[in-house]
Amino acid sequence: MNVSGGSGNRPPRSNLEEEKTSTTLKPPALGRAPHRARLDKREPLLGWLFSAPAVLGLIVFLVIPIVAAVWVSFRDWNGIASIFDSESVGLANYRELLTDDGVRRTDFAISLRNNLYYVLGVVPTQTIIAFILAVILNQKLLKGKGFFRTAYYFPSITSSIAITLIFVFLFQTNGAVNRVLPFQDIDWLDNARGVIHNFLGVFGVEGPAFLTENEFMGLELWDWLAGPSVAMVAIMMLVTWTSVGTFMLIFLAGLQNISPSIEEAAVVDGASSVQRFFRITIPLMRPTIFFVVTLGLIGTWQVFDQVYAGTQGGPRKTTFTPAYLIYFQAFTNSKAGLAAGIAVILFAIIMFFTWVNRKVIRDTGDF
Amino acid sequence: MADIAVTRKQVGVRERGAGPLLKRLLGYTALVFFALIFIMPFVLSAATAFKSLPDIQANPVSLVADPAYGGWTTEGVEALNSSRVNLPRWTFNSVVVTVFVVLLRITFGSLAGYALARMRFRGRGLIFALILAVQAIPGIVLAIPRFMVMKELGIINTYTGMIVPLAFDAFAIFLMKQFFEQLPRELEEAAALDGASTFQTFTRVMLPLAAPGLIALIILSTQGAWNEFLHILIARIGRPDLATLPVGLAGLTAAFGQAQPWNTIVAGSLITIIPIAIVFFVFQRYFVQGAAASAVKG
Fold first, then answer.
1. Do A51 and B131 touch (CB under 8 A)?
2. Which of A331, A339, A353, B61 could be disulfide-bonded to A297 (CB atoms 3.0-4.6 Å)?
3. Distance of alpha carbon B127 from its chain centroid, rounded?
4. How far is CA B177 from CA B102, B124, B130, B289, B290, in A?
5. Distance (Å, rounded) from C-alpha A275 to C-alpha B258?
């Protein structure tokens, strides 16, 4: 799932859904083919011949790069000269990112903070909205559901960049969003104020000394607690808007797996629809919910396209994310070695959630 | 997907009285509300593409052009072919990239998918494990080292560099493997008895039978390649003339600074969206199938 986002989420491939609804795409058991007469005694050779182009390409463009990412992260490469002319610098890139005082570490800390708030905002919101839409679309009372399903899913399959530009247009200070919302005009994409700071400001809290005097990774504790900037909130809304449809489809497939007889029995027992929702639907959907949440976690740590086309990391770095910082350090600052270091750290974060996700799939056996 | 409503209707759990009516009303209100949120940005963009810039400033939400600002105009669309916005070239590049990526993906995907589904050879399990492993690698993590590999191969800033790395897609192999596995074995055995070689059996018998899988792969790859951003951005980093539609568009807001020509920008965005929208509405069920397959991939 665009889960990505795709690039949003460049979510991993953003289209997903459980299989029950469609045909027969079941993952086959890994293992040998059933016994049968060998039709062609050159089969082993042909097998390799058929697989060779794909395997070679995957090795050159996926396996070697992922291994090389670690190697590059130990080198001082500017991304312009040949990598073989660069020098090995040991752990220097990681020190710059994690321990040495300086702008690189602060930028990385800012990007982690921004992405953390982004994840905390987007994952629950998209999961809840997708779940609610799926539950409504699963009601037998309603007609015309195909149309609504298509309308909700459509944004997921369009270009993340095109959608982002449309949203930038909508979120202009004198744009459509401000005209529709009943508040004072907000300078959405130029506003670097953290929303938690804004909220605390209402009560007169403006950075108590014990928070402004202490720091972690070169960033004041007070700044860690800023919350997402208003600009980041706009990007969060954009990504939620594009990814809800995909997750809705997954939930819808899960809901259709619930045996109608269970609900029927509950109705006979006199359970109200609210009781049925909380006592039956949600518990039975728990595996699907875990699945969607972990997919969301994987996707939201990769947000790049929307930042690149929407805000370029601004205002005041408040939409920097690790993914954007990789690009920024490598191609704007010519610090490709450092960028590879960020990529390795980000890879570890994403692989952790991928591992959890696959564990969920294995443990429930539902997918 | 079409039978969502049917499955539960059969059960005959029925509620009577005012409850269902109220529920229905609430349900439709929610559905329509969300439908507006999902559809209106596209509708407003379509109107904005044909409004003048002062009109857009004055009436950002209006779906009709204001005659006081010149009414409907094609000036925004016409500016898509100008010094800073080279939409014809971007479209050409997008078409070239998409066509070749799709052709290569179905070639490599069906060859390897067939081998993995039907042939027995040492290393088959290893190859399949490799495919499962690389599927989960996020593109952004690959960006820098892949750039390095392309640089050493001398294909940065070429169509080759834009196309070939995208041609190798673990998902494509996975999908084709699934489809070949569903086909009955007797067909191959019959072809072999008729004296067909393995390659002939593959091209003349199995590939045509796997057409539904190929179509699904073509559609999903078209969408993926057409919308691809990060790889193209990096693969042609020094060549603005090699930009595809998403890459060209993404540079627009920066290129114009304060005075954004919104009619031109949203027109370009819609032109990027429309081809995939058409594919989507015609072949919707394949998208759902593909969604299913990627969920399996996890």
1. no
2. A353
3. 26
4. 17, 12, 14, 15, 14
5. 54
DSSP state of A316: T
DSSP string, A51-80: HHHHHHHHIIIIIHHHHHHHHHTTEE--SS
**Residue ranges of domains in chain B:** 17-76, 87-297
Residue B169: Cβ-neighbour burial (10 angstroms; 0-12, 13-18, 19+): buried
| Each residue's pLDDT tens digit, B269-296 | 999 999 999 999 999 888 876 665 554 4
Domains and CATH numbers, chain A: 110-192+229-364 (1.10.3720.10)
Contact criterion met (CB < 8 Å) for A47 and B293: no
N- to C-terminal Cα distance for chain B? 21
C-alpha to C-alpha distance for B239 and A307, rounded to whole angstroms: 22
Distance of CA A94 to the CA centre of its chain: 24
Cβ(B139)–Cβ(A71) below 8 Å: no
Q: What pLDDT digit, counting tens, does each position of A336-352 carry?
A: 999 999 999 999 999 99
Please list the residues that pair with A75 across neighbouring strands: A88
Name the closest residue on chain A to residue B189, using Cα atoms: A39
Residues 141-180 of B with CB under 8 A from A: 141-149, 151-152, 164-165, 167-168, 170-171, 173, 175, 177-178
Place of tokens 């999908």: B175
Q: Please report the DSSP string for A287-311 in residue order.
A: HHHHHHHHHHHHHHTT--HHHHHHT
Q: Give me the count of residues in chain A.
A: 367
Q: Which of A149, A155, A165 sits opposite B269 (nearest CB)?
A: A165
pLDDT by position in tens, chain B (length 298): 444 444 444 444 444 455 678 888 999 999 999 999 999 999 999 999 999 999 999 999 999 999 999 999 999 999 999 988 999 999 999 999 999 999 999 999 999 999 999 998 999 999 999 999 998 899 999 999 999 999 999 999 999 999 999 999 999 999 999 999 999 988 888 988 888 888 899 999 999 999 989 999 999 999 999 999 999 999 999 899 999 999 999 998 888 877 899 999 999 999 999 999 999 999 988 887 666 555 443 3
Collapsed DSSP state (helix, strand, coil) of residue A355: helix
CATH number of B87-297: 1.10.3720.10
Q: How many Å separate Cα A88 from the centre of its chain?
A: 33
Instruction: State the ipTM, two decimals.
Output: 0.91
Instruction: List alpha helices for chain A, DSSP H.
Output: 43-58, 64-72, 92-98, 103-137, 145-153, 160-170, 176-180, 195-202, 209-212, 221-224, 230-256, 260-268, 273-276, 282-300, 305-310, 322-327, 336-364
**Per-residue pLDDT for A30 more than 60?**
no
Q: How many CA atoms lie within 13 A of A243 on its CB side?
A: 37
Q: Do A340 and B112 touch (CB under 8 A)?
A: no
β pairing state of A75-76 and A87-88: antiparallel
